[in-house]
Amino acid sequence: MENADKKLFELDVSEIRDWAYAMSNLIEAECHLQQTWEATKEEKYAEIVSTLRKLRGKLFEDFMANKDYGVWCASKHLLSCFMQLSEVAMKELDKGNKETAFKYLKSSQDVLRTFILLHEMKKVKKPSKR
Q: Would you say 108 and 86 are in contact if contact means Cβ atoms under 8 Å apart?
């Protein structure tokens, strides 16, 4: 995907951040539905989780520049961690713990930046050996 940092207008977030938020939410939806399946034992939730996992795989295939297995897998975990740390930060904010919330929010952004770095690394052309 060319120009992953392209924005539609100045105040918009970058395309890669939009994608990261979308994939993070998809991963979180999978997790919540897995928990629902476990709690209810209803097979329909397993089918939905399976469908979402396949969709996530297709979307990753479309977007990920670095398709190395370890980076692919780490990317999923980084996006999941990013979303979960953001959730923890908001819960801390709700409890009135602004400093703790900010610390976790900053950590979530650090994790997101790590994901972006991994994504961008594959796009950099290495000098050819002569």
A: yes
